Amino acid sequence: MTVQVLGRKMYIRGMWVERENMIDVRDPQDDSLIDFVPAATPQDVEVAIEAAKDGAMLAASMRTHQRMNILHKTADYIRSHCEEYAVTIAREGSKTIREARREVERCIQTLELSAEEARHLQGEVIPFDQSPAGDKRVGYYYRFPIGIVVAITPFNDPLNLVAHKVGPAIATGNAVIVKPSMETPLSALMLAKAFSEAGLPPKVLSVITGHANDIGDRLVTHPAVRGVSFTGGLATGERISKQAGLKKLSMELGSNSPVIVLADADLDKAVESTVQGAFGAAGQNCLGVQRVFIEKPIYDAYVERFTRRTRTLVVGDKLSEETDIGPLISEKEAIRVESWVDEAVSMGAVIETGGQRDGAFYQPTVLTNVPLHCKVVREEVFGPVVSLFCVSGLEEAVDLANSVDYGLQAGIFTQNIHLAYSAIQRLQVGGVMINDSSDFRVDAMPFGGVKGSGIGREGVQFSIREFSELKVVCFNLN
User: Fold this and answer.
1) Which of 2, 100, 226, 429 would bridge with 89, disulfide CB 3.0–4.6 Å?
2) Is 390 a catalytic residue?
3) Chain CA centroid to CA 367, Å
4) According to CATH, where is 3.40.605.10 located in the chain?
């Protein structure tokens, strides 16, 4: 299927612009060239920021119903071009066509949620007379937009993660500059196309394509930028936090999510949920199941069933309706994952299934007997690899789950509400899923983590808080 995309141009000041220097956009499945996008320069960043200054004033002056209308129209435009968006997501990234369609649907929901949350930008009356000094004073507080938001997005959800930043920012009345991943810039450009078709005023949104080394520093350090929303790796997040200065920061920096399976769990449900959670999107998912801690009485049965189910997954052509797992985002990433598995094996880990690489494809891999100091345990694999551990009970499982410098989400399978509640209290994460894998999320919930998994929360309602400030108003009636 041929898809018409707005490659060769980026979106600045409400205009589609070209540049002499271009960046290839390639399909990781076969390295075929899909399109080109401009390689933006520091001068392009300055132009985008100057436009965003005007755009921020314009966005702040828009009425709530106008913002809502634009967001709903944007969602409607994407809905009417659903397959075009899905094929683009699948071709430029790692997702299968079925996974890409689900992402398009989630993007539509994110934009519609953003429209609805715009009506809830409310404040409260403050009882100033609670203090004698406040006699004959009345007032309130309300939320106002911070101004210019820079959104830096990754490759693994190239449409919905952009919408998760742009939708709430526009609902709040901000201007937004998006810097998408250079592996998957086309989906972000198509989102800009949808906003343009919906009537978003020029200068409120820019999507600037370019190498992070050329434009990233200026985007996050510019004094006119009042907020940075970043989804990506821990090292980059730490660097941004040191560079950005006094501005709002919201960061989701990944994880190596744990799941605990206790002896009383529904074993079939636990296996199916964790297999899907481990290998969806070829494991390139910040919520993906990476470590599973199984109570000893059911360990052997769980490993056997999990391995058997993993072997049924179909690896292949992303655009085939039968495919479960596509390639990683690049052969380089597949080689890295392969090296991490090889390291674990050299230290005593056992490959129950998988462990083979073919170009950018890496077979879904199940490891047991993995030493706790291996990279596949300590770091974020971001690939189709899961490690299974036998534990004596909940206490050991929680201690091991908490032993890494990440804490995004966790899952636990048990029929015992007391054990579930104990895990909820003790797990050092931003979310605990009971009788679900760590991979469960809806776009309305607060989403974020602790420790190296980031700061702040996404989820439409909660992003709106990140993109706004409180202003207190007091009338002296004396």
Assistant:
1) 100
2) no
3) 26
4) 10-253+453-474
**Under CATH, domain 10-253+453-474 is a member of which superfamily?**
Aldehyde Dehydrogenase; Chain A, domain 1 (3.40.605.10)
Contact between 104 and 82 (Cβ < 8 Å): yes
* CA within 13 Å, CB half, 155: 24
The model carries a pTM of 0.94
Cα–chain center distance at 59: 25
> Could you read off the pLDDT of 187-201 as tens digits, one per residue?
999 999 999 999 999
426-435 pLDDT, tens digit each: 999 999 999 9
Residue 136, helix vs strand vs coil: coil
Helix axes 64-80, 160-172, angle to 10 degrees: 160
CATH of domain 258-442: 3.40.309.10
Element (H, E) at 341: helix 331-346
The single-letter code of the amino acid at 92 is: E
- Catalytic residue, from 92, 99, 117, 286: name it: 286
Range list for CATH 3.40.309.10 in the chain:
258-442
Cα separation of the two ends of the chain:
72
Most distant CA pair in the chain: distance in Å? 79
Render pLDDT for 206-249 as a digit per residue (tens, 0 to 9): 999 999 999 999 999 999 999 999 999 999 999 999 999 999 99
- Contact call for residues 91 and 148 (beta carbons, < 8 A): no
Tell me whether residue 107 is one of the annotated catalytic residues.
no
Task: Report the residue count for the chain.
Answer: 478
